[in-house]
Amino acid sequence: MSQSFLPEGIFSRARTRRGRVAIGIVAACLLGIGLWLVSRPHAGAAASDDATVPPLVTVTVPTWGDVNGSVSLTGLISARNDMPIGNEGDPGRIAEVLVEAGDHVRKGQLLAQLNPITADSQLDSAAASLDQDRANAVAAQAEWQRAEHDADLFSAEESDRRRAAALTARAKVKAAEAQLTDARNRVAHTRILAPTDGIVLMRTAEVGQIAVPGSTVLFHLARDGQVEMRGQVSEQDLPRLKVGQTAEVHLDGVARAYPGKIWQIGAIIDPATRQGTVRIALGPAEQDLRSGAFARADIQISSSRGTVLPETAVLSDDQGTYVLIVGKDNKVERRAVKIAGTRSDGLLIDNGLDGTERIVAIAGAFLRSGETVRIAATPAAPGRKL
């Protein structure tokens, strides 16, 4: 009944639109299938081509160069000859201290003075005893000479007695002279003197302190003001060091480097640390070269010559360090090498190369030994053909 109210043309136009939409959908599907069929063979061919084309690599030819090797070590600054100075005489109380740590002193300079009262009294007593013994010896000698001159007036026993008395008096004089010398030494030992030129490193002497010989160190003196660096070197580096090699010593916070020279290499290696001791002589002590300061030294060793390669060309794995060489047949070959040092333009190789090889310069880790490669066309250095 409802259809009687709609014109017939409306139904006709609706059917026409539905037909057109259906035809468009079918045409689009057919077109997509056709395009897929057309493109399928070409994709397969491209994949086949990629599987057969060798990878493209960049190669480099080693150059020859030198590198100056060095061994680095750390240690402390210390006096080359640290001389402890104490009291060599009798125990005594310090009456005066005349120097401070850091002072430059000369040989024989007075460092400290002990109380000399006891030593002076002993010296006076020894001098008086010597004078008395000398007078007695003169008298005994005169009596013996008179007995010899007037032998007729004296018996043989008296002459022998006077002779023995003269000899005894001479012996007493010698003993008194020895006692006087000892007393003078005691007085001299109350004066603590510098045994050599140098720098006072440490002062422990204080006024009023009892200086006991053999147990009390009053001063530490750097002999002739010379200082050194004492450092520890690993066991494998010790054979590369020799006495006389030069070194540069650096201190924390100090811009300048201090020149030095190895003057002693330890004779033993510490079994716990596997390190040996190296002593580097420096110049006279300066303001910054203080005993106990932390220092680092670079010791120059003999230079090495070898081939130089970019760092990207040298690879390493659990089997060691190696490079990849492209042979005449463009196949990759692995070759072990040994690095001797570093330069600003690459790594120095001292074993494994003769300087004519073509080395894979970049991304060699993605290649396999025996794989065929293509070499990229890159400009070569003058006189070098890749």
Using brief descriptors, characterize the structure shown.
single chain; alpha+beta; conserved putative lor/sdh protein from methanococcus maripaludis s2 fold; Elongation Factor Tu (Ef-tu), domain 3; six-stranded antiparallel beta barrel; 3 helices; 35% strand; rod-shaped; disordered N terminus
Number of strands: 23
- Terminal-residue CA separation: 94 Å
Major sheet characteristics: 6 strands, antiparallel, barrel
Which percent band covers the strand fraction? 35-45%
CATH superfamily of the largest domain: Efflux pump adaptor protein, beta barrel domain
> What average pLDDT do the residues reach?
83
Radius of gyration: 50 Å
CATH architecture label name of the largest domain: Beta Barrel
Oligomer: single chain
Structural class: alpha+beta
Low-confidence stretches: 1-12, 35-39, 41-50, 380-386
Structural description of this entry:
The chain is an alpha+beta fold and 386 residues long. The chain folds into 5 domains: 2-51; 56-67 and 305-375, conserved putative lor/sdh protein from methanococcus maripaludis s2 fold, CATH 2.40.420.20; 74-79 and 225-303, Beta Barrel (Elongation Factor Tu (Ef-tu), domain 3); 85-114 and 193-224, OB fold (Dihydrolipoamide Acetyltransferase, E2P), CATH 2.40.50.100; 116-189. It has helices at 8-52, 117-149, 156-188; strands at residues 56-57, 59-60, 63-79, 82-86, 92-97, 104-105, 110-114, 191-193, 198-203, 210-211, 217-223, 226-234, 246-251, 258-265, 275-284, 294-309, 315-317, 320-326, 332-336, 338-343, 346-351, 359-360, 374-375. The strands form 6 sheets. The protein has a 6-stranded antiparallel β-barrel with strand order 3-12-15-14-13-16. Strands 4-11-9-6 form a 4-stranded antiparallel beta sheet, with no helix packed on it. A hairpin with a 2-residue loop joins strand 17 (315-317) and strand 18 (320-326). It starts with 7 loop residues before the first helix and ends in an 11-residue tail after the last strand.
